[in-house]
């Protein structure tokens, strides 16, 4: 799936770091961060590129692994006596080691291939990558059992990243559709993808997604665990959950959302909210706590989870199960109490060298957005913040990719490291592949707006390249450089379909007869080199120029295009 | 054009102030600010509601206005020997007075009907309206020759307003299409509309728009003046411009963008920009200044303009002709120099009691947005700021309604009074009526996000009403309360078309078997009244509840919907 004819995926250096090279009509090129991967036949999956790096380290071994059970794919599979659309590609034995996290290596002063790769992608010093990972301020999610992934980093010193959620539910979708959504997401720029499937075939859907994904894959294991106990939260046990985590770690899930901060004593704090508990995982754990009147088993077994995660290098995404579901509930005691617990859990994971990011809201009015990231950064000692939007208002269902992009750009500007996209279907339905594209493009522009606002080195180069193309009427370059060249060109064609208009020195806003850009080019022609010129010189220059201008017939409009 | 069956337009009190009343399925109602007007037959136009208020004041008189000339409709009309689609409705003689601006009355301590009307619309004290208008911190744009308009106020103490641009160009559109865009804009919530026509039939198109518009209409008179001199900026004269301003004032234009701040000495400051001058009006005046090497005639004749404006109560929208057209050019010397001049012009207009708002950018990185409004408010003594976006990045043509909504919500939160919308077609083409709708809805949500962030009294009521409906699975109410009920319901239907799903206690995200909202309702049922309960009480309560819960079978999921 190629976005635009002027785009080429190149792999640079020994590490084969991908870039999207955009060829411009003026002979220049512009290189963009590339997430789409080398491409794959869904039935075969991607080559396990990182295998040799993992081999090299020699600290993992392949083992027989957990036996897949029918129930891993839900009751339907049990009824059927078989899973649907079994994975047809290569099957590798799972690997694990004693402690093989990137944080573990970083703290030992080792710069791994993954870190070096990331440094090239981010155009920064590998040592900066190592330092940030060692300090817990950044994570490189890449389970050894997902060797197809191209390493990327999540941390506030680096480019703001975006995640796209996909996944089926009890009422929709097929495996093929989900793989299609994955392809769409990475083609348009998703840095990670979460498989939030809740229906049947969860195990197999995830297998297809992992084997075809060049980006890290995240999950919420409690969703599958719930399916294994017939959707009855009170029947959940640590054993079922633990088994599910191992199942997913062996498949190669790179990070897992764990709602270990939903403590029994916090549940009543949500009782008087406008929208109570809106996190699915949060409400599952709240339901369990209520049913048993016991502390959340994810909290009480947290160290055992760390022991598992460090053997595969699975990163924690500490879920905010009590995040606000409406602007009314933002930054309340329930949300902040959980955040304090997530801070404690961050420190505990770091004791095992396990990588951690912390999830955030949700729905937050703009005046309270900065407080969210400030508190998270302070309490969680700079662990990467990963937020869902937040939505700046509740009144626009159908447009929540926009209400949330406003909050997302703002919170990222203040230090959030990754943004979970919201699609136009939020609150209304599950995204189809067009919604996935809209959500990804919307979040790419929000993340980029934050990179610019943060003064991230080189971030504005892309804007400047596009703006120059716009100013010089290089329409094709303007299209090629835009986040969505297809839509940009299609919109232009709606008003000016003629081929000539692609090179015309005017746009449909002013029409062929007059164009403001043209006039400012006249200005530039006259005063182009005036840096450092004294007012008198400029004055004299202008007097001179105005004579020439009059002599030339004072043309301030353009020849009609053919 | 009715947006939703549950919406009714009501007119409250003697002043007949309109509200949109939303009837909810739980018997409650919610009243929303209403911009759509009473509706009209385009050929007949709207009733001149404000005529009697104007009569009452007895300080204006009707007179034999300026004779319409063929050239008012452009060269095509001259060739044809007639205008196209002449206005067929009632023709009233224009009126004027000595000084009849709302600011003039406010400064005399008079609370006009317009001020009282606005106070009802804004649910505030009429005296607040008078004070803000007298101080120049707010304007009520309503030319006496546009008696069809329903008064509204633009100022930072009031609800953030949005403007929708319509208008034809040399390459597109018809009068009927433009009237259709007007209807679309006000139906979806535009507070004012600007007619930026630049092609043929400018005079007649504007007549149709004014006679059918319940919202204030703004224009950029230099566009029509340029047409009158064959598109050759150097041929422009004060006399042609003055004649055009009177023509438009007599038709009833409520505010006019005047690029009087583009001074000769500022033009060279744009020479080294990435995108030079992108404002059409700005470049026209720059072209004129260069051609004649004389000071901008709008600046040198500014007091004469004030004399005209105060006779009709036309408000200034001081144009930012040197606004940045790319993030690279934001907050540069060219932009800020012009702003200082706009501040001077604001004070000069106030000496004539003429109402003023000041236009702002444009393209501005998020970290520089606040500075824009802070400087404008400080330098222009609190005169209302009216910004175009600003766009927070340049890289997403086709999605600039979103890149700009991010900047718009941010700048409005910091005190911008009105936001000029940007449609998905920005930089690529002219908006069609669907783009107008998308632009309006996007800006409504951005303006509302700012109202909430500012803590505007009652602003969050709308969010809370919708969130409660969402939490209680009142799907129909969630649709009816949303900014775009049509799209919200359509998106819901894509996943769950069945009629039953409109009342089902689940959504397609989790499916029928499990729903987080349901669980939090369980929580609320158990701990509903726990305000002020001591931890011990809550603890005891929870223990109790968990027994009941277990006894009840620990159901945390939902009956399948039929």
UniProtKB/TrEMBL annotation, chains A, B:
GO biological process, one term: thiamine diphosphate biosynthetic process
List of residues binding substrate: 165, 194, 223, 259, 279-281, 320-323, 359, 386
Class of enzymatic activity (EC top level): lyase
Alphabetic keyword roster: 4Fe-4S, Iron, Iron-sulfur, Lyase, Metal-binding, S-adenosyl-L-methionine, Thiamine biosynthesis, Zinc
UniProt-listed Gene3D superfamilies: 6.10.250.620, Radical SAM ThiC family, central domain
InterPro entries xref list: ThiC, ThiC/Bza_core_dom, ThiC/BzaA/B
Chemical reaction(s) catalysed: 5-amino-1-(5-phospho-beta-D-ribosyl)imidazole + S-adenosyl-L-methionine = 4-amino-2-methyl-5-(phosphooxymethyl)pyrimidine + CO + 5'-deoxyadenosine + formate + L-methionine + 3 H(+)
Entry's cofactor comment: Binds 1 [4Fe-4S] cluster per subunit. The cluster is coordinated with 3 cysteines and an exchangeable S-adenosyl-L-methionine.
Binding-site positions, Zn(2+): 363, 427
GO terms for MF: 4 iron, 4 sulfur cluster binding; phosphomethylpyrimidine synthase activity; zinc ion binding
Residue runs in coiled coils: none
Cellular component GO terms held in the UniProt record: cytosol
The protein's annotated pathway: Cofactor biosynthesis; thiamine diphosphate biosynthesis
PANTHER family reported in the protein's UniProt record: PHOSPHOMETHYLPYRIMIDINE SYNTHASE, CHLOROPLASTIC (PTHR30557:SF1), THIAMINE BIOSYNTHESIS PROTEIN THIC (PTHR30557)
Role this protein plays: Catalyzes the synthesis of the hydroxymethylpyrimidine phosphate (HMP-P) moiety of thiamine from aminoimidazole ribotide (AIR) in a radical S-adenosyl-L-methionine (SAM)-dependent reaction.
Family: Belongs to the ThiC family.
Protein name per Swiss-Prot or TrEMBL: Phosphomethylpyrimidine synthase
Source organism of the structure: Nocardioides luteus
